[in-house]
Every structure is written in structure tokens, then in C-alpha cells.
Amino acid sequence: MSFLHQFKSLISYWLNEENEHSLHSPFVYDLYQKVIKKKPLAKSCYEKIEQVRTQFLNSDKEIELTDLGSKSTLKGSNKISTIASQGITKRKYCHFLDRLADYLEAKNIVELGTSLGINTLYLSCEASRKVTTFEGNPSLVAIAQAVFEGNKRNNVSTIEGDINDTLPKYLQQASGIDMVYFDANHTYEATMNYFKLIRKKCKDKACLVFDDIHRNAEMEKAWKDIKDDFEVTLSIDLFQFGLIFVDPEIRKQNHILTF
Ligand SMILES: C[S@@+](CC[C@H](N)C(=O)[O-])C[C@H]1O[C@@H](n2cnc3c(N)ncnc32)[C@H](O)[C@@H]1O
């Protein structure tokens, strides 16, 4: 069912995607050229992060699973190697998120869903950024924290527990968020709930990135409703990710862009 849904969504994406030639908004054109289309820089931190990913891919360890009602695609696998190969952000997309953080000059980043901490390593690779990452599985929190310590990431705070409980508490004292990566609970209800809670604490120029917007019918509906939200001024569908801006200075527009 989900495979068929993704296939249909991909066909629709291919038929509707635009490139730089159809972009009239200077902001979207600049973002497309400098972040979406741009080839990855060879930052010195990248190689070390990929070595950590390789260690996980070769690991024969298993962890305790926690049911967080998140519609995981891992089908109950508790092997670290399976999580590393199927359950975390791929290198190309981690590079994109790092470029986006650079472009936004993001200082205050929130990541929902830490898992093994690989993408968090990318988000925190500049010391000027502070990253707050949320994870509900205690075994994964322990692994990720060891990774952050081993890589001297003093700019990462890990918040352990069910995001349904921890996010509202965190947001009571949070403000000035520049970038959010939604990569935890891929259900309609959770996605809408986290979006509504978090956007109030974001800066005008902030970017909210939703992972896997075409994964299933629930995520598709969440993406549609988020795009239609009256405060959302710009949406960009990259198939893997949906990007949202709530900047009142941008006129309302939706794009599907080649990535
Ligand atoms: C796709 S993985 C995150 C991958 C990570 N962002 C990366 O790319 O390296 C999603 C994670 O979210 C966690 N998660 C899902 N639902 C959650 C919830 N309600 N509360 C806390 N964590 C949750 C899962 O345990 C899982 O580790």
C-alpha cells in the first residue's frame, strides 16, 4: 500500500518538478542555486562522520526496541546495522541539511528523532550552531550520546523521552529557532501537532524541514495541510523533504523542485 503510494507520488513529482528556469522569486532562485542544486562541499568533518556511519553498518549489536507509535519502516528490526542502513538520513540528504543550515546561518537547530546521531553530527559540525535533538528510545540515546562525546560535540543537547511529552516542555523555554528537522514520528497527528507547537517558537526566516512527506497517505495529508496553513508563505517539495517557510516577507507560493 505504502509502496504503491510512494510510486504514484514519485510519478506526480516527476511530472510536476520545476528547475531554475521557471523560478521568478529571487529568494527561491537563490536557495535553489546555493543549496538545492549545489554539489556538496568537501567539509573536513564529513569523512569522520561517514566513518562513524560505516562502524554502525558493520556492527553486529542489537538494541532494545521501544514502541513510540511512529510508523517506522524498519519492521521491528533491532539490529544497529539495519537501523544504520534503512532507518537514518542518507549521506546526500545529510549534506543537504548541512548546506541549508549554512545558508540560513542557523544558530539554533531542533531535530526530532536522533536515532544513532549521524545526522546530528552533520547539523552540529559547525561550533556556531546549537543543536537540540529528541529521542525516545533509551538505548539509542545512550549510543548517540557516546557518539557526540567521541566527536566532541559540546554544542548538542539530547532530550530523552516521548516527544509528545518532551517537546511541549522544551518549548516553554525555547525561542529563536532557525531550523527544524522533523524526522521522528511519521503520522498525521504527530506531524501536525509538532508543527503547530514548534512554529510559534521559530524566527520569521526559519526553515522547517519535513522528512519523507510522500511516505504514506498520512504524511501526504500532513504535507498538504501544512502547505495550506495560512501562516505558511513558501513550500518546496523535494520529494524526500518538504521545506516550509513562514516568513511574512515572502509572497505565498508552492514549488516542486528538481533535487
Ligand atoms: C528516522 S529516525 C531518526 C534518524 C536521524 N534523524 C538521522 O537521520 O540520523 C526516527 C527516530 O525517532 C524516534 N522516535 C519516533 N517517535 C518518537 C517519539 N514519539 N518520541 C521520541 N522519539 C521518537 C525513533 O526512536 C527513531 O530513533
TrEMBL record:
GO terms for biological process: methylation. This is Class I SAM-dependent methyltransferase. GO terms for molecular function: methyltransferase activity. It comes from Fulvivirga lutea. Transmembrane segments: none annotated. InterPro entries: SAM-dependent_MTases_sf (IPR029063). The keyword Methyltransferase applies. Keywords: Methyltransferase, Transferase.
